C-alpha cells in the first residue's frame, strides 16, 4: 500500500480502493510544503536556535493549532452541514453576510486568484463524488463558491477558494472524522517542516527580528511611591 492508502487502512481497518488511496496520497502531497506560512516560520525560528527537530516540529504544530492557520477545512464542512442543500445556499449567504460572518475556505494571503491546490482537490472531489454517488457536498460548495465570488466581485473585492475549501469534503467522503482534518494537515506538512529545518541548519543564523517602537515619546521616570 502507498503511504496515503496505508493511512486509510489503519484508520478504517479495511484496504481502500485505488481511487481513495490515490486521493489520500495527493492530498498529503499538496499539503506538504507552502513557503513561509506561520507554522513553517515557527519551525525555522526554533531550528535557528539549534534546538532539536522535535522541538521545532512541536512549535510548528502549536502554530497550526491556531484558528487563523489550521482547522479551516473542518469549519468548511460544518458550514456545508449547516447549509444542508444547494438550494439553501443563497438565503444562507445573504444572512451570513448581513451578520458579517466569514465564509470559510475562501481567500488567501498570497493568492489573488484561485489557489492552484484547490483546483486539483476540486477535481478529486468530483471523481470521489461520482464513485460514492454522493454529490451533496460538491453541489453545496460549488454553489457557495459561485454566489460568494459573484458578490465579492460585484463589490470590487474578488475572493477565491483556498486549499481548505474542498479538502474537507474529500476527507468526509473518505470517511475521516472532522476532528482529524487538522492533524492530517500536520501529517502532510511534516515533510515540508523537516525540509525547512534541514535547510536552516545548513546555513544557520539565529532569527533575531528587529522591532520599531511606535508607542509614546520618552517620558520622565516617576518613582513608584509617587505614581
Verbal overview:
- This protein is mainly alpha-helical.
- It has one domain (3-202): Cytochrome P450-Terp, domain 2 (Cytochrome p450-Terp, domain 2), CATH 1.10.230.10.
- 60% of the residues lie in helices and 0% in strands.
- The protein contains ten helices and no strands.
Topology:
Elements: H1 3-12, H2 18-30, H3 38-48, H4 53-65, H5 72-83, H6 89-98, H7 116-132, H8 136-154, H9 164-173, H10 181-202
Helix pairs in contact: 1-2, 2-7, 2-10, 3-4, 3-10, 4-10, 5-9, 7-9
Briefly characterize the structure.
By secondary structure, this protein is an all-alpha fold. The chain has helices at residues 3-12, 18-30, 38-48, 53-65, 72-83, 89-98, 116-132, 136-154, 164-173, 181-202. It has a single domain, classed as Cytochrome P450-Terp, domain 2 (Cytochrome p450-Terp, domain 2, Orthogonal Bundle), CATH 1.10.230.
Amino acid at each position: 500500500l502507498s503511504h496515503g492508502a496505508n493511512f486509510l487502512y489503519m484508520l478504517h481497518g479495511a484496504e481502500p480502493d485505488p481511487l481513495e488511496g490515490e486521493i489520500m496520497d495527493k492530498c498529503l502531497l499538496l499539503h506538504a510544503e507552502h513557503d513561509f506560512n506561520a507554522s513553517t516560520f515557527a519551525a525555522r525560528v526554533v531550528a535557528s536556535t539549534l534546538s532539536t527537530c522535535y522541538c521545532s516540529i512541536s512549535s510548528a504544530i502549536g502554530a497550526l493549532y491556531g484558528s487563523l492557520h489550521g482547522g479551516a477545512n473542518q469549519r468548511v464542512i460544518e458550514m456545508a452541514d449547516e447549509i444542508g442543500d444547494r438550494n439553501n445556499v443563497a438565503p444562507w449567504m445573504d444572512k451570513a453576510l448581513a451578520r458579517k460572518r466569514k465564509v470559510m475556505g475562501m481567500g488567501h494571503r498570497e493568492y489573488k486568484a484561485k489557489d492552484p491546490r484547490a483546483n486539483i482537490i476540486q477535481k478529486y472531489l468530483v471523481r470521489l463524488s461520482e464513485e460514492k454517488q454522493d454529490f451533496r457536498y460538491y453541489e453545496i460548495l460549488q454553489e457557495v463558491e459561485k454566489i460568494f465570488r459573484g458578490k465579492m466581485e460585484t463589490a470590487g473585492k474578488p475572493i477565491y477558494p483556498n486549499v481548505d475549501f474542498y479538502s474537507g469534503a474529500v476527507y468526509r467522503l473518505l470517511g475521516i472524522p472532522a476532528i482529524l482534518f487538522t492533524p492530517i494537515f500536520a501529517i502532510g506538512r511534516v515533510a515540508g517542516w523537516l525540509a525547512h529545518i534541514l535547510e536552516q541548519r545548513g546555513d544557520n543564523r539565529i532569527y533575531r527580528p528587529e522591532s520599531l517602537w511606535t508607542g509614546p515619546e520618552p517620558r520622565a521616570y516617576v518613582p513608584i511611591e509617587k505614581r
